[in-house]
Amino acid sequence: MTASTTSTFPTQAVVLAGGQGSRLRPYTDDRPKPMVEIPGTGTPIIGHQLAWLAAEGVTDAVISCGHLAGVLQEWLDSADLPLRVTTVVESEPLGRGGGLKYAAAHLPHPDQPWYATNGDIWTRFSLREMASFHGERDATATLALARPRIPWGAVETDAFGHITDFIESPPSPYLINAGVYVFSSAFTSLLPDRGDHERTTFPRLARERRLAGYPLPHGAYWRAIDTAKDLTEAAKELAAAAH
């Protein structure tokens, strides 16, 4: 970050909401993935995301639409939103990196840092703390990192091959990209006009030690809503948290 932005947190964000969500059918037959509701909340995933961004100090969001964009835009027009929202639709597929660059071009403050999130992520943690982490490392881009639970039961064995324990849905030994980002203003120009930034821009920044990874705080809620089972699990977890 430049000296003028190190003392402030980002106030703008991009939400990538163009995915088809084929693994969430039939929920996504008539709506884009971010418009799917978490059962019991009455609010689509995008609504929860915008509320979270606003609570973290974001005043302007650019939503990159694609599949069934009209459904999402209609909801945004009728909803009481906690921040200013601009929607953009790619006239032709640009890939994840190109889509991100196209959306970023519509941010109100191109010379300032920005957040980005995938439209199917359901999470809560301090974006301000992540932005501070990003600034302390003078990173060009910072990825939030999650340690998801493995969906299967794991088996532990001893050196001789005896089974010693069964563990239900253990945490993964690996960190994964959690789909939430902090980007410095300089990042935008490094994105490809088309193609996937995770195969081009991110590896380049990693080689140059300009890419940081922010582990989600212990106990922070995170789930990618990819399948109907994820919806069911999210609803259970929300119900449990309410009691």
From TrEMBL:
Report the CDD domains cross-referenced here: NTP_transferase
Q: Where is the Nucleotidyl transferase domain?
A: 13-239
InterPro entries linked:
Mannose-1P_guanyltransferase, NTP_transferase_dom, Nucleotide-diphossugar_trans
* Protein's UniProt name: Nucleotidyltransferase family protein
Q: Give the species this sequence originates from.
A: Streptomyces melanogenes
